[in-house]
Amino acid sequence: MTTLAIHNGRVIDPAQGRDGIADVVIVDGRIARVGPNEGDMVVEAERIDATGLIVTPGFIDLHTHLREPGFEYKETIATGTRAAARGGYTTVCAMPNTQPPLDSRAAVESVLREAEHSACVRVLPIGCITRGRAGRELAPAGELAMAGVVALSDDGDAVADPSLMRHALEYSTQFLLPVAQHCEDPQLVRDGQMHEGWVATRLGLRGRPASAEEIFVARDIALAEMSGAHLHICHVSTAGSVALIAAARARGTHVTAEVTPHHLTLTHEEVAFADDYRHLRYNTNAKVNPPLREEGDLAALAAALRDGVIDAVATDHAPHAAMDKEIEFDLAAPGLTMLETAFGLCMRLVHDGQLTLPTLIERMTIGPVRAWGLDRRPGLEGLGTLAPGALGDVAILDPHAEWTVDPATFASKGRNTLLAGRRLRGRVIATIYGGRLVYETERVVAL
Amino acid sequence: MTTETARAATSATRAPVWHHHDVLDLDDFAVDEIETVLQLADRMREVLDRRIARVPALRGYTVVNLFYEPSTRTRASFELAGKVLGADVISVTASTSSVVKGESLIDTVRTLRAMRADAIVMRHAMAGATYLAAEHTDASIINAGDGAHAHPTQALLDLYTMRRHVGDLRGKRVVMVGDIAHSRVARSDLWGLTAMGADVVVCGPPTLLPRGLRAADRPAHAEAALPPVTIEIDLDRALAGADVVMALRLQSERQEGGLLPSLHEYAQLYQVTEQRLARAKPNCLLMHPGPKNEGIEIAGSVAAGRNSIIEEQVTNGVAVRMALLYLLSGRTESPGGGAGGAPAVEVRP
Q1: What domains can you pick out in chain A, each with its CATH number?
Q2: Which of A129, A178, A310, A320 is the most exposed place for a label (fewest CB within 10 A)?
């Protein structure tokens, strides 16, 4: 029997409505007891002092690119899950835009097998909506469901054909799988490089208008309504999308949504400006799809996250190698590495009063679990909570610790962050997966 | 003494100001730096107009024209500018270089620098490519056009040409007509013209005007992030009282891209014609960055009319590029050779 006792932290477990000083005792990989002084009741335990720190369920990311198989030069399951652990994440849902894409049982099983081998946190694969992510014919959702995928997505590419999207949604209902769509009309964004607006005009870059996202959000909500399927909107980025999702949820449509830390906190100005408006840059690390938007969008996204119109913070962790980013802006790969900075970046919303800490924790733990019904799956009961019997996945956080982002210290192979050299307030101190420490900083004090 | 010569006389007594290591756009040029270029261009124009237009000012200076996009006039203009000043000029085009073998832009620029290129004149179909190059080499990068972003040497030659005719640009109404959204010339001209105090009006159909150019479409803190211009959809209203009109080239792809119903309709609504120019000031200058489509954005009679300075733009382009190459070289001896040449340029880091 192995026992880990986390003493005297402020335990925030939104699923249980708990927020107070308590000890968390994990026995043989599962939560045994949570309560004041519970740790003192166990003998022969490994002990961590969490005085002054926050203790929460391990974070769950609905949107991670682990790049393996096929793009191991960008990231592997081993490095990506280590990055997750450093970010406080104990469960990541792996997007299927690998090579080969996860559109067959064999491909999904190969990821699960590799994860068993080299992952340091839980990997839940997502299967393709269409074969080869080509948007022409359905991928075998039944076979993928049996292999263990937790959702379907062609992420990076929207399913553009409305008829095919309709059928994908209808077909998904028999497996209770969410269909997660990257909403951007490819005909409207064409070869757009960033948010369409005044910064794109300054840079002479082609724009991706907000309407391209909103058109697909509206369309797919209508298709979800007619099919009764579960539509999940990936990385919502505009105020208009928020309004559409809020209205659909008010009507009872089964639509859930996620937002990324970067879309919540950074605007399109990141692409062009560092210090002033006089000197220009073309920062490929700020190139991401959907693009970083405007202040008004950020405010609407934060409010939607606060109000629960958006269920989850998801990282869209998209590691790339230098050769994918140190090229012409038009040729650069979209996306940024995010797992290791997600909590610190989201804490900006807490520090400036837009979100309470328990709400943020909710959206990073039980929020995503409930959005996709992950805890209904065998073996995942209690995911996202610290209830007795639940999985022993815990994050220990210091919401006030300031640190400087240094990409050289990332566990991820991707150094494509926008935050290099910037100060963040809010830091992951330790991550526990299945009762084992998978990440700890020097702040961790053993008792 | 006209205001122009008075101003020139006072500024000639100041030490010329120059801070740039690269010329990427005019958005980071102070007014006194633009003045430095324009005044030196005057001296260069004198050199260019000599019977034997050749001086050794840039002997031993190596200029590489790196063109990823076809160009006749800009490339020839830079080649001649370098050669008149005695620089070694070579040209590399995308089709003959190792670009087709997948060599990255950074590799190419570093390789050229390793061969001791002092300045790289670069044209590229993608916005920002010249900025990427400038970040990765200590050769001077001159932007000869990057996508729809900027064409600063064209803007400087436009300023120079206007100044020769209308003098001080402060308060002058300059109207740019056409495809503003896709025009790198327009973007750079807007910075240069507004810096020099001109009242700039941009005019074109809504499909060819970029988003966010109107100050009201930007947050208050970003007011200075784009040049202050007036936007006018109606060409007749735009032309009223104009001192200078610049027609921009209309690419036929704009019709295929669904931005315009037809070139014919475009010409009906936005062609600069003699009849429309009647609303402008009597001696309104007519400019065009070339190559022009006569009968579409500009009437043939206007392009060849007495107020057209289109051909002079081309000649001045060589002089302005000579001035820029000279300034970037950091050399301080008189480029004209002997008395009457250019004043020494104080080059500051």
Answers
A1: 3-54+391-446 (2.30.40.10), 58-376 (3.20.20.140)
A2: A178
